[in-house]
Amino acid sequence: EPEVTQTPSHQVTQMGQEVILRCVPISNHLYFYWYRQILGQKVEFLVSFYNNEISEKSEIFDDQFSVERPDGSNFTLKIRSTKLEDSAMYFCASSVLSYGYTFGSGTRLTVV
Amino acid sequence: SQQGEEDPQALSIQEGENATMNCSYKTSINNLQWYRQNSGRGLVHLILIRSNEREKHSGRLRVTLDTSKKSSSLLITASRAADTASYFCATALNRDDKIIFGKGTRLHILP
Between residues 26 and 65 of chain A, which touch chain B (CB distance below 8 Å)? Predict the structure, then answer.
């Protein structure tokens, strides 16, 4: 069964450093998303991406965040200057026609 | 906010029993989806129900949707130890809209 692949599974970074979280969505999917889940809390929407551009973003997705689909297969989330409160699980998802998302296993980001 | 709110927050039942989780939301929706998350893992899509549907089945799962009450329920029949997980409902306002998750129900199946 097709999967969404996320790398790395765990990343530790120092506060103020840039991180790039990588995702390979399912190849024939059209919609791409990033969500995050702070430990013990609910899953929060960050951004959706369709037709090579951001279609919607949440208030969490401020100027420190950016997304790219650089080569038609990868989908990346960049955090320019990480803060302690960015520590969370980050999930990538993709879907066809936005029905029923397929999520990756997540990247656990720890900012120290 | 359109987000769903699950009830109860936590549920412990004996293996073999049925588990029922509820989700309420605030605005009209296009569809509602249920996801499962095993501890520290990713989210697995279970079932999607559209606003014009009232009930859907998938294996041991049964989902109902009552748009007049803005609520949905997820029933897992004949529960198994492997069903231990958190279950989330997520709603989409429009067909191509993002989905917004509720806080989830932690289900624990006792042997």
Answer: 31, 33, 35, 41-45, 48, 50, 56
Taking CA atoms, B99 is separated from A83, B14, B22, B37, in Å, by 26, 32, 17, 16
Q: Which residues of B touch A98 (CB under 8 A)?
A: 92, 95-99
- Quick: pLDDT tens for A5-52: 999 999 999 999 999 999 999 988 989 999 999 988 889 999 999 988
State both tokens at B3: 């987000």
Smallest Cα–Cα separation from A95: which of B103, B59, B48? B48
* DSSP 8-state symbol, A4: -
The DSSP code for B60 is T
| Cα-based distances in Å from B64 to B3, B36, B37, B106 | 17, 17, 20, 19
